[in-house]
Design brief:
23% of the residues lie in helices and 24% in strands. The longest helix has 18 residues. The relative contact order is 0.15. Helix 8 runs antiparallel to helix 9. The chain is globular, with a radius of gyration of 21 Å. The structure holds flavin-adenine dinucleotide. Flavin-adenine dinucleotide binds next to strand 2, helix 2 and strand 9.
Length: 448
């Protein structure tokens, strides 16, 4: 995450999770809501940042001032009758789980890592494996405080300043600093998840399983490397919170840390194909069912801290898009073929149906349809060329890409994916900016 610690002649680099692009900025830690606006207002533009778990440049600002929020990490109020939690925006989802699970509560929506802040979860209006039944994180946010760079502070909710509520949820940190938020947790009686895993072969089997699924959480891992009869094979995973009372103990700290940047040659077609094959066959039977702990079900990657070093010092790009149901099958086939032909895919590919619960945020990513997300190690030219091609296919099939995972969209693509961007621009704080926003509004070239 974040501070690479690397000293340069300029200001330090704050890295996003993909470690690309590498941009310099001043990092100012915030501890209290009153720390902002800063006492000595910087001449530079500003941007709030959380734990740097976005992949591209949405949490970066070259030569800017990054307002680092994880020090604002206090719980302010919890109502165990309703599950309403008020906390500062720098509180991580990990901290919420450690507090809430022993009390019989769980996050209403969680991404594939618990190392994100509440502010980051709101600003990207994150989604999880229960999108089809719960919508995005923003739907479970009751209220928050927004502070603008001119010192104005106001509370936003569906009834108080509702237009600011909608602009800030999914607003990529550009509308102001969120200092605290109230979210609604959901009750659980056990850490366990009742799990069901089904192997599938090909996109049609994936579609059939998605249509039949009844569980609260659904997601599939899909092999984007194998060709021939193994093309688009995968494992479809479903889960529900167990209704049988069970352990509600807090999680243990992960003990593994990826220790160094892997050299570029280590991740190649053969090592990735071998991993995919192992992963597919780890489930030996066509179907596997039983209780599992919530940690490996929701956060398999969190077991190894700093796993992003696996991609080496050049980092990686994540591509994440959604295509509408009508064109989803055809479009995903074209995308999967382009990826397998390139031989560039890594092992972390997920595919899922989004539901039709509308997002509260004006700029939120999820729309009804089929979503694909996967990582590509950066190999100059070839990776950029492939991701740019996938973006064009996404546009052709009427889909859109996720800003929180992006480092390559052109202004034309972004503005076609999010035609409401002009309306959103009215809410952007004049003292705030981001490398992403500069790029997609045509003020900064795409870094090659
Ligand atoms: C392994 C992994 C799995 C993931 N899985 C998913 C997934 O399943 N679904 C999903 O939606 N995302 C997923 N993500 C992405 C991640 O959830 C989002 O990028 C999230 O926003 C990161 O939060 P953060 O605290 O790290 O914020 P950062 O990445 O530091 O910042 C994200 C955005 O939030 C803004 N921001 C941060 N704090 C504040 C604040 N206090 N006030 C205003 N703006 C603020 C920043 O300006 C920036 O625009 C995943 C990421 C990883 C690494």
């Amino acid at each position: 995450m974040g501070k690479s610690g690397r000293k340069t002649e300029q200001t330090p680099i704050f890295e996003s999770w993909g470690r690309y692009p590498q941009l310099h900025a001043d990092l100012i830690p915030l501890h209290w809501a009153s720390d902002f606006p800063l006492q000595h207002a910087p001449a530079a533009l500003q941007l709030p940042v959380g734990l740097g778990r976005s992949y591209g440049d949405v949490c970066l600002l070259e030569n800017g001032t990054l307002l680092h929020t994880p020090g604002m990490d206090r719980f302010l109020h919890f109502d165990s009758a309703t599950g309403m939690l008020r906390c500062e925006a720098g509180v991580s989802l990990q901290k919420i789980l450690d507090f809430a699970v022993p009390r019989g509560f769980f996050l209403p929506v969680t991404p594939g890592t618990k190392y994100v802040t509440v502010g980051g979860a709101i600003a990207n209006d994150i989604h999880g494996k229960n999108h089809h039944v719960a919508g995005t994180f923003g739907r479970h946010v009751l209220r928050f405080e927004l502070v603008r760079s001119d010192g104005t502070r106001f509370v936003c909710s569906p009834i108080e300043n509702p237009e600011w509520f909608a602009a800030t949820i999914g607003g990529m940190g550009l509308t102001g600093l969120i200092t605290w938020a109230e979210i609604h947790l959901r009750p659980i009686v056990s850490r366990k998840i009742d799990f069901l895993g089904d192997q599938f072969h090909g996109i049609d089997e994936f579609f059939a399983l998605s249509l039949d699924a009844t569980a609260e959480y659904t997601v599939a891992w899909i092999d984007c490397i194998s060709t021939g009869r193994n093309f688009a094979r995968g494992i479809f995973m479903q889960g529900d919170h167990s209704e049988t009372p069970g352990p509600l103990t807090p999680s243990k700290e992960p003990r593994l840390t990826f220790p160094f940047d892997l050299p570029e040659f280590a991740l190649n077609r053969f090592s990735m194909a071998a991993f995919n094959s192992l992963y597919f066959h780890k489930q030996l039977r066509k179907q596997k069912a039983g209780p599992v702990d919530y940690e490996p079900f929701f956060y398999p990657l969190d077991a190894v801290l700093h796993w992003n070093r696996l991609y080496g010092r050049h980092g990686f790009l994540q591509f994440q898009n959604v295509l509408p149901h009508e064109s989803g099958r055809e479009g995903m086939l074209e995308i999967l073929k382009a990826i397998t032909q390139s031989g560039l895919a890594s092992f972390l590919a997920v595919i899922k149906f989004f539901g039709d619960i509308p997002s509260v945020g004006m700029m939120s990513f999820p729309t009804p349809g089929v979503m694909l997300a996967l990582d590509f190690p950066i190999r100059r030219d070839v990776t950029f060329e492939l991701v740019d091609r996938l973006a064009r296919i996404t546009l052709d099939y009427g889909g859109r890409m996720y800003s929180a995972k992006d480092a390559r969209m052109t202004p034309e693509q972004f503005q076609a994916f999010y035609p409401q961007w002009r309306e959103f621009a009215r809410f952007v704080d004049p003292g705030f900016d981001s490398a992403f926003w500069q790029r997609v509004t045509g003020r900064r070239p795409i870094v090659a």
